Amino acid sequence: xxILLRASALDAxxxxxxxxxxxxxxxxxxxxxxxxxxxxxxxxxxxxxxxxLIDNRHDALRWGDEAIGDRPAAEVVRLGIALVPEGxxxxxxxxxxxxxxxxxxxxxRSAPWDLTSVYDAFPVLRERRDSRVTVLSGGQQQMVAxxxxxxxxxxxxxxxEISLGLAPIVVxxxxxxLARIRDGGxxxxxxxxxxxxxxxxxxxxxxxxxxxxxxxxxxxxxxxDTITAAYFGT
Length: 234
Ligand SMILES: Nc1ncnc2c1ncn2[C@@H]1O[C@H](COP(=O)(O)OP(=O)(O)OP(=O)(O)O)[C@@H](O)[C@H]1O
Ligand SMILES: [Mg+2]
Known about the structure:
It is a single chain. The chain is of the alpha/beta class. Helix content is 35%, strand content 26%. A hairpin with a 2-residue loop joins strand 9 and strand 10 (212-217). The longest helix has 16 residues, at 168-183. Residues 14, 17, 19, 37, 39-45, 86, 193 line the site of adenosine-5'-triphosphate (ATP). Magnesium ion is lined by residues 43-44, 86, 160.
């Protein structure tokens, strides 16, 4: 098993406020790892730390043998780590295709994802390529956000609450796509508040509570009472 990314004793701060406490986390090639936890547990902070949007201790994050805790976001993208941010954060004045092309901007990495393969993965986006993203449905906008991240050809894809507010059938489509992305060799982290949805697709999971990992393992080895206790802190 090749460990792609390892967080060791990761602390994260917003000014004086500490949001993560000594988090140990790892993900290997070919895994979907779910990070679950209630509102404010620190899920987005963990993803933002990995993505270089929050500055961390140099050696708190390792990408292979390289310490990357203090790398800026643009460099992290070039290493092969892409974030689908909470709330999608698309460029509202741009078309579907222009939004996708923004994702390739940082890229020195060129395979296998390009406009053609993203459109093959999400055919509806090909039909709507010249539409402004604001006229798309929520599910289609989420596909643009995922496609934009894929355009940088990541080895590790970080997805923050991609199912929030979407119809169940659309969520199933998106998760099917994530499994295909994983099977193609890209590791995937999914952050979810929906425990059931997250555990259905994940190979392993971590449960965060108030900035600390309370539980981790495989979905099959944890019973629902234990998970509920780690999630709610009861
Ligand atoms: N920019 C910020 N400035 C100050 N505190 C922040 C900031 N962003 C998050 N926090 C705080 O850090 C903690 C963790 O927040 P985070 O957004 O990582 O949680 P989360 O698990 O993603 O929650 P949610 O499910 O609501 O998205 C919370 O207490 C939150 O209030
Ligand atoms: Mg969040």
